[in-house]
Backbone:
């Protein structure tokens, strides 16, 4: 089974990309994503029945609907007098009837307003409850503040195209709130294992389990042990997480907390594709080796691995020579890294880059002229740095689009179906295929090379009958109401308090 | 508790989601918007007419009133053909004391000519069914004006006729502005004026198959009966004309609206089981014949013929299903109709039948564990439970979030009967049963215990994991 394609299919069947065009879910969905990774855990949603109902159909849980979600069912009088009695009853029932190892208590907007002392109630009840009670505390009301994405873009625009981004603490993200609760309420001081690390199991892309399994195997060859995958661990493992001497994390707020409480340093992988390629792999493992004091061992393994895969990689790269690729993308901010990925890491010569922008990009992300220029400069710098001789075309009209595509043999544009109508072979992007070991790197390259063939593309694609939106797949251009609902969300939320 | 249905806000949003030229503005937090969209979107995935005011921290402190005019203004700017806006307010505005009515009134004063209706639906003050009832009641003002005008015209035109109950009534004036379309509408070749008219209450666009079902009903009623308004798929203009129908058909929900319409417009109503099965549809048609001057004898004959061919194809399965204990959950619009179908037509024994609006999934699980049920009919929310108890399962009721219907397949009538039967049989046939050997359950596992003894509701990893063997 190929976990990458399996994830792609099963998540693709869920309508969440479309939903994300129209809004975001409340932070409880992120909290549930974290808790679902923990075996023998039950969650109590401390809110009205509607929260306990609709959050079961949450975005990040692939198997959905969430099974182990209970609800306090706050009603009118609880809003007035407080819901403590109901919370106590439901916790006792769950502990008695379901025997979980941990019970997470998730606040909701209603409980945040009535402001019951959930933590105090849990502490009071803990001696009589067998399960470990963990109270997730609200860092923000309802969901994360919108300024995160703007701040990130601003910070990224200020960096040169080779710098690693490490902003974004995601305060108020439900996932992060759970991680903070684990650090503060479950983890306990431990004797440090100098060669053990914790690896955070969150958004490693499609095929994430396999990526981390292979990472673990590679680390083992360097003498580095994975102490715990977090939060995908049981109670005891989480309790002992401070044994590790390093955290490898995707979200840094909890790692900062753990550093402060237990002195555990961390390495932040904020944008995976910034760690792409052989140099990205080397930097990742060498940074870990340096922090753990085993750099020579790490270097030796990396040297051997590079030497081992190089002949195969060269053979694959040779298949890309003299072919004409056109990269089509919507992303300003990631384009420098995408250019590196193709030109430098895989040796894929880009003849054209088509940048099809979100027409409201500047408005939605509060981008002024100076910032816009910096973003363009990053792209130009990357093209120069990685010897990319592509012609960059921004927002072409139909004639310009036709011309560029006519001059290309292959279109690299992910699964966006809009470009299938041009009858050119389409190749998925690498963006979701960042990997963390050498065999996987070669496999991804080989998979790409396999698609570089001159087979006639399908001539009667049903999806060509649809006029998809150029930027906001899977919206259709003629679905005016859905387009309006998308714009409503921008106006009511993203553009508020600029 | 583990609720099997949502809150009043989700119910209200659902009830209004089938109105093609209206927009729902949720005055609430963004999670409510997402949650109500996500649970029903697979049934109507290409036409979203819902937005949120996105109440946030600052609104809890300073109030969220300012968001309402912003939302309303944006809606009239963005949605090309909006004939009504429904503001559904949730928990937080109710808790912080937002005066939503005043905010709407002030906006309307500055923006005359827009229909805006408010449905207060704090989630802690009612379940999904309550929200549906509240939203349906809120439609009444849309009917009142039109219905009063219609009655005035009846009086002035003097064009009296005998209605389906034998009462003298007048017909709307032909060619009059707001009813002009009626003159052009035909119903299977007949002018729609000639046939009795009904409204269908209780279904929503997010109910699985409900849109196909109403298409099916319009087909079989062609020339005999006009559905003025089916709330799972309609326009404001059809709602406005609801008062002109001869009869309201209530499927579980919408009783309050039907009562009000009876009081205000003198329109009778009948409560019907959702017409699952052959006999279910025959009974439904008989109820209509009984109340209206309609004759469905040809359809009833066709149904009888279709039943014969269905039995021929499925004889083997029918005998297997006969007397099998089964469990059923559903909302008040669907539960009784499905229970009757399973018992009366398939001869199954429904050992559990729980209403999702009022019952709890934990109770369902307790009862399932103690029951003999070998089949479960419900929603996607019961799928995990069915998996755990190795029960074949059929999804027939909201929310269905892990199955789509891309065809025009109805769930009612002869076609629906065959389809339901097919779903039940296929669900049973797909179960991977006794794959470890017929007597595999007698073996002691490698980990030295029998998994059955766990009896824990929490999804446990295999025991070998607990012993650290995966490390």
Residues:
């Amino acid at each position: 089974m190929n976990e990458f394609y399996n994830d792609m299919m099963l998540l693709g069947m869920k309508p969440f990309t479309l939903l994300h065009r129209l809004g975001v879910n409340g932070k409880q969905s992120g909290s549930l994503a974290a808790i679902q990774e923990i075996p023998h855990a039950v969650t109590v949603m401390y809110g009205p029945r509607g929260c306990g109902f609709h959050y079961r159909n949450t975005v990040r849980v692939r198997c959905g609907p969430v099974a182990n979600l209970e609800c306090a069912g706050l009603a009118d009088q609880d809003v007035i007098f407080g819901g403590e009695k109901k919370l106590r009853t439901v916790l006792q029932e769950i502990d008695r009837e379901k025997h979980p190892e941990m019970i997470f208590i998730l606040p909701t907007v209603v409980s945040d307003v009535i402001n019951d002392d959930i933590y105090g109630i849990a502490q009071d009840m803990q001696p009589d409850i067998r399960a470990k009670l963990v109270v997730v505390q609200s860092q923000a009301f309802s969901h994360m503040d919108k300024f995160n994405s703007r701040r990130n873009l601003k910070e990224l625009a200020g960096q040169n195209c080779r710098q690693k981004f490490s902003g974004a603490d995601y305060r108020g993200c439900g996932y992060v709130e759970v991680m903070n609760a684990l650090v503060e309420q479950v983890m306990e001081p431990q004797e440090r294992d100098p060669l053990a690390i914790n690896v955070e199991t969150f958004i490693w892309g499609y095929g994430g389990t396999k990526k981390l399994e292979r990472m673990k195997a590679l680390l083992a060859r360097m003498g580095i042990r994975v102490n715990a995958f977090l939060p995908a661990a049981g109670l005891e493992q989480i309790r002992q997480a401070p044994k590790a001497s390093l955290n490898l994390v995707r979200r840094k707020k909890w790692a900062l907390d753990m550093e402060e409480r237990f002195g555990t340093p961390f390495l932040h992988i904020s944008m995976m594709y910034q760690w792409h390629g052989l140099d990205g792999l080397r930097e990742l493992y060498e940074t870990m080796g340096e922090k753990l004091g085993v750099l020579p061992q790490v270097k030796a393994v990396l040297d051997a691995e590079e030497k081992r895969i190089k002949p195969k990689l060269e053979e694959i790269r040779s298949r890309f020579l003299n072919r004409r690729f056109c990269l089509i993308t919507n992303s300003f901010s990631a384009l420098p890294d995408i250019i590196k990925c193709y030109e430098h890491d895989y040796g894929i010569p880009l003849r054209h880059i088509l940048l099809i922008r979100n027409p409201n990009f500047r408005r939605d992300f509060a981008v002024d002229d100076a910032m816009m220029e910096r973003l363009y400069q990053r792209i130009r710098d990357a093209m120069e740095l990685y010897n990319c001789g592509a012609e960059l075309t921004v927002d072409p009209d139909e004639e310009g689009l036709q011309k560029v595509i006519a001059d290309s043999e292959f279109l690299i544009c992910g699964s966006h179906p809009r470009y299938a109508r041009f009858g050119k072979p389409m190749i998925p992007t690498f963006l979701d295929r960042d990997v963390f070991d050498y065999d996987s790197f070669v496999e991804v390259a080989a998979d790409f090379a396999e698609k570089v063939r001159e087979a006639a593309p399908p001539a009667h694609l049903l999806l060509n009958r649809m006029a998809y939106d150029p930027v906001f797949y899977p919206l259709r251009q003629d679905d005016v109401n859905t387009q309006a609902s998308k714009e409503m969300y921008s106006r009511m939320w993203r553009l508020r308090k600029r | 508790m583990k609720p099997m249905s949502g809150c009043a806000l989700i119910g209200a949003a659902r009830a209004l989601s089938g109105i093609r030229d209206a927009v729902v503005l949720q005055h609430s937090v963004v999670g409510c918007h997402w949650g109500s969209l996500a649970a029903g979107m697979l049934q109507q995935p290409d036409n979203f007419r819902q937005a949120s005011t996105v109440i946030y921290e600052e609104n809890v402190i300073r109030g969220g009133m300012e968001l309402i005019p912003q939302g309303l203004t944006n809606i009239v700017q963005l949605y090309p053909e909006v004939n009504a806006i429904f503001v559904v307010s949730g928990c937080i505005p109710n808790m912080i004391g937002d005066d939503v009515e005043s905010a709407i009134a002030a906006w309307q004063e500055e923006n005359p000519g827009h229909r805006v209706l408010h449905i207060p639906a704090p989630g802690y003050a009612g379940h999904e069914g309550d929200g549906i009832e509240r939203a349906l009641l809120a439609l009444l003002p849309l009917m009142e004006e039109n219905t009063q005008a219609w009655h005035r015209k009846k009086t002035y035109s003097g064009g009296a006729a005998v209605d389906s109950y034998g009462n003298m009534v007048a017909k709307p004036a032909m060619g009059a502005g707001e009813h002009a379309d009626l003159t052009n509408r035909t119903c299977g070749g007949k002018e729609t004026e000639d046939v009795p008219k009904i409204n269908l209450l209780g279904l929503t666009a997010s109910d699985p198959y409900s849109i196909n079902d109403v298409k099916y009903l319009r087909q079989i009623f062609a020339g005999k009966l006009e559905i003025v308004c089916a709330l799972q798929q309609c326009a404001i203009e059809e709602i406005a004309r609801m008062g002109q129908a001869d009869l309201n058909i209530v499927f579980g929900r919408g009783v309050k609206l039907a009562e009000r319409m009876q009081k205000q417009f003198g329109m009778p109503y009948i409560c019907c089981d959702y017409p699952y099965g052959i006999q279910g549809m025959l009974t439904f048609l008989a109820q209509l014949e009984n109340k209206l001057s309609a004759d469905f004898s040809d359809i009833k004959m066709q149904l009888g013929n279709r039943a014969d061919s269905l039995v021929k194809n499925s004889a083997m399965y029918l005998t297997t299903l006969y007397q099998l204990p089964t469990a059923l959950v559903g909302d008040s619009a669907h539960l009784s109709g499905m229970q009757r179908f399973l018992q009366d037509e398939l001869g199954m024994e429904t050992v559990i039948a729980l209403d999702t609006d009022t019952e709890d999934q934990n109770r369902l699980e307790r009862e399932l564990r103690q029951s003999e049920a070998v089949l479960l009919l419900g929603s996607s929310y019961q799928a995990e439970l069915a998996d755990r108890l190795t029960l074949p399962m059929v999804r027939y009721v909201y929310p269905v979030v892990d199955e789509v219907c891309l065809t025009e397949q109805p769930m009612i009538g002869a076609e629906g009967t065959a389809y339901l039967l097919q779903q039940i049989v296929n669900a049973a046939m797909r179960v991977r049963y006794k794959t470890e050997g017929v007597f595999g359950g007698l073996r002691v596992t490698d980990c030295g215990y029998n998994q059955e003894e766990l009896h824990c509701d929490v999804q446990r990893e295999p025991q070998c994991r607990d012993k650290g063997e995966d490390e």
